[in-house]
Amino acid sequence: MPFPVVNHYGPSENTVIATAGVLPPDLPSDVPPSIGKPIDNTRAYILDDAMQPVPIGVVGELCLAGPAVSCGYVNPDERSAERFVANPYAKGQWGRMYRTGDRAYYNSDGTIEFLGRMDQQVKIRGFRIELGDIEATLSRHPAVAQAAVTVWKVNRDDQRLSAYIVPVQGQEGLDSVSLRKFVRKSLPAYMVPTYFTAIDGLPLTNNGKIDREALPLPAADERSRTEEPPATSTEIAIAEIWRALLATESIDRNANFFEIGGNSISAMKGLSEISVRFDVQLPQRSVVMDTLSQIAAFCDEASGAVVPDKADGGRPKLFARVFGGKS
User: Fold this and answer.
1) Mean pLDDT of 23-50
2) Can you give the pTM of this predicted structure?
3) Domains and CATH numbers, the chain
């Protein structure tokens, strides 16, 4: 028998429930449900970095006000002062506001769409990445019980995604090879973690949330694991260039340069070195989108498909079917 399903949202700091909404019966399974509207005695503001309300459809930080907002954390400290602030839009029982740290936006009908944590959005190599999207993808793997993703800073200019996996009890054979291939099916290359580390359980804070600062460094064996080593002489030569740029011994022929720790600056250096080494003009998109084996295939095919370009001072213009067109 059909029955209504009510979706609730609310942090502990606001006495758990802050918004609610009945889910439509025809909601597709792959569409995240709205978190509804604020319940009675609760006001929900979506604000920008300057604490100003954003227009409908624009993403901001979800802030809550009302008598349900607590007074702060036990043993008040800087965190309490940062999260529990004066409400600039109301006084009295509405005068205290809690900054949830969650990203959301208002629909035109007054319902709220929840997008995840603000501190789970990171920027790596010019790409904005939602760590929650990667975690959700990993959690769909039948052998994964829990997953967490964080950013591991190799140095100031080198940041890489590191995934931590809690296997389903009794599960054997879970490894970075299968996990990486699984993530690749759903997410772009720049969102595929460089490292996968199996752990017994995720560390939690006192309020039951994942304590990302307590996650260990990526396992040493994961930092040096290779799925499939370079096979051809061209792949081996390109791998040597990548090793020097990335300061790593592990190069997978099916990996994208960014996927194994590259950044925009090192990518441009690699692009230049490969172009000089093989006397080809690589498309800039190749270093972003393609794997080592695909780049090697381009170089191999281009070396046998040189067409003089008279309009460019006699410099060769290269064509390669592997990339579907000209460079």
Assistant:
1) 89
2) 0.53
3) 6-116 (2.30.38.10), 125-223 (3.30.300.30), 233-326 (1.10.1200.10)
